[in-house]
């Protein structure tokens, strides 16, 4: 009964490859996010989806493309992987609190991506 | 320059109260201040959230001054298991379209 799950947990690949990371939440939340955590533990938001619509698109390279087939899933596809893409990627979800701001986010366990 | 900052690290001993302050001088008007805890190889976990004044739950308190340009997470009587990285999360700029920004994280080391 995992709330937010990600697959795979580890991903090792070579430069130039295309890969996807999947995320699913069973909390019934309206909003889902992708974060990148680098080797210095800095957490940065990449994307946010609310009811299948992109509402935040941070200045990430367009090699990264989020895809949300339904409200419970937000997948991250990465084209032409580069060494600098190596990081831990976290998916999260939250209830849409409307004008009250960002609600409590539930994070997945993370996907450690290593590009060689 | 808008920035969300926290101390990089703190040390404490078991049983002490720990206060971690986050400065967020460009916080959006309408959004909450949220704190997360992260253990190694895990995703961040929600601790507490507040808008103004003081909020308390079973694990922590959150103190927010009237100008909301900072917030202080207070952990009462820490134990070894509280050793973790603590992040504040705020929205900067506009309430609806502003960026969600994490502080750089405070590594708390609790010693016996």
Q: What would you say this structure looks like, in words?
A:
The complex is a heterodimer of chains A (116) and B (112). By secondary structure, chain A is an all-beta fold. In chain A, 0% of the residues lie in helices and 55% in strands. In chain A, strands 2, 4, 5, 6, 9, 10 and 11 form a 7-stranded mixed β-sheet that branches. Chain B contains no helices and 11 strands. In chain B, the strands form 2 sheets. In chain B, strands 2, 4, 5, 9, 10 and 11 form a 6-stranded mixed β-sheet that branches. In chain B, strands 1-3-8-7-6 form a 5-stranded antiparallel β-sheet, with no helix packed on it. In chain B, strand 4 and strand 5 (45-50) form a beta hairpin.
List the helices and strands and how they pair.
The complex is a heterodimer of chains A (116) and B (112).
Chain A: E1 4-7, E2 10-13, E3 19-25, E4 31-37, E5 43-50, E6 53-57, E7 64-70, E8 73-78, E9 87-94, E10 105-107, E11 111-115
Parallel strand pairs in A: 2-11
Antiparallel strand pairs in A: 1-3, 3-8, 4-5, 4-9, 5-6, 7-8, 9-10, 9-11
Chain B: E1 4-5, E2 9-13, E3 18-24, E4 33-38, E5 45-50, E6 53-56, E7 61-64, E8 70-75, E9 84-92, E10 99-102, E11 106-111
Parallel strand pairs in B: 2-11
Antiparallel strand pairs in B: 1-3, 3-8, 4-5, 4-9, 6-7, 7-8, 9-10, 9-11
First CA to last CA of chain A: what distance?
34 Å
Round the Cα radius of gyration of chain B to an integer and report it. 14 Å
Helix content of chain A: under 10%
Number of helical elements of chain B: 0
User: Could you describe the largest sheet of chain B, including whether it forms a barrel?
Assistant: 6 strands, mixed
Number of helices of chain A: 0
Query: What about the largest sheet of chain A?
Result: 7 strands, mixed
Structural class of chain B: mainly beta
Q: Please provide the ordered H/E string of secondary-structure elements of chain A.
A: EEEEEEEEEEE
**Would you tell me the overall average pLDDT of chain B?**
92
| Number of DSSP-assigned strands of chain A | 11
Radius of gyration of chain A, in Å, reads 14 Å
Uncertain residue ranges of chain B = none
Distance N terminus to C terminus of chain B? Answer: 40 Å
Helicity level of chain B: under 10%
């Amino acid at each position: 009964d995992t709330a937010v799950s990600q697959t795979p947990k580890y991903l090792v690949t070579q430069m130039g490859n295309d890969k996807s990371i999947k995320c699913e939440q069973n909390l019934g939340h309206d909003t889902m996010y992708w974060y990148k955590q680098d080797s210095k533990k800095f957490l940065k938001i990449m994307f946010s989806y609310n009811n299948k619509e992109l509402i935040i698109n941070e200045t990430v390279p367009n090699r990264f493309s989020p895809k949300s087939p339904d409200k419970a899933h937000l997948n991250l596809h990465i084209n032409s992987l580069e060494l600098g893409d190596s990081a831990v990627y976290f998916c999260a979800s939250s209830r849409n609190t409307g004008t009250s701001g960002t609600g409590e986010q539930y994070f997945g366990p993370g996907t450690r991506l290593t590009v060689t | 320059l808008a920035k969300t900052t926290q101390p990089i690290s703190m040390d404490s001993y078991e049983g002490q109260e720990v206060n971690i302050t986050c400065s967020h001088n460009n916080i959006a008007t309408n959004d909450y201040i949220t704190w997360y805890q992260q253990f190694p190889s895990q995703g961040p976990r929600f601790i507490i959230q507040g808008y103004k004044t003081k909020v308390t739950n079973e694990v922590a308190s959150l103190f927010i001054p009237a100008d909301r340009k900072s917030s202080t997470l207070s952990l009462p009587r820490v134990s070894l298991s509280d050793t973790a990285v603590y992040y504040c999360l705020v929205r900067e700029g506009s309430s609806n379209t502003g960026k969600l920004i994490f502080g750089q994280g405070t590594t708390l080391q609790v010693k016996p």
